[in-house]
Amino acid sequence: MLREYFESFFTQFKTPFMRWWLFFSLQLSFAISAYYWDLYNIILQNDKTKISFLIMLVFVLTTIWIGKRTYQATQEYVYDVIDTDVGWFISEACLALGMIGTVSGFIIVLGSAFGAIDMTNIGTLQRALSSMATGMSTALWTTLTGLVCSLSLKIQLVNLEKV
Question: What is the spatial distance between Cα 133 and Cα 113, in angstroms, rounded to a whole number?
């Protein structure tokens, strides 16, 4: 019975644009939930390079581009002319930006944390630990953002190619 329900539900999403719209709606609900739970502010405070927001901007613009291309392909039935190379490059660029943020975070950890440590002074140890936490949070937030945005773009691109 449950299988029949899901089959009847997903039969509405036979066209690639409707599948893209469903995925876009899910992404939008996640984005609104992230705003509600103040996730953007947490990233703003913890990502010192702000690369995560660059990745999110690239993701939003590329999602709109993919949606437009999917709609055009569905309306015009031009299935063999769909060029998704740029989209695949951008999804890989999101991964690369995430890795750049990771490296930047480790540079923050290694460059500033260990430079001025005086083992006899507790204050310098506390500052070093604080600096290490800043660098690690930058590294982790940019990596997570790059991975999630890249994966989401790849899902949309596979849908577009299966038109």
Answer: 9
Q: What are the pLDDT digits (tens) for 52-68?
A: 999 999 999 999 999 99
Task: Calculate the alpha carbon distances from 30 to 27, 37, 40, 68 in Å.
Answer: 5, 10, 12, 21
Q: What is the pTM of this model?
A: 0.83
DSSP characters over 80-106: GG---HHHHHHHHHHHHHHHHHHHHHH
CA 142-29-38 angle, to 5 degrees, is 50
CA 127-44-26 angle, 5° bins: 140
3-state secondary structure of 19: helix
Q: Which of 136, 150, 121, 161 is CA-nearest to residue 62? A: 150
CA distance readout (Å), 5 to 13, 14, 159: 14, 15, 23
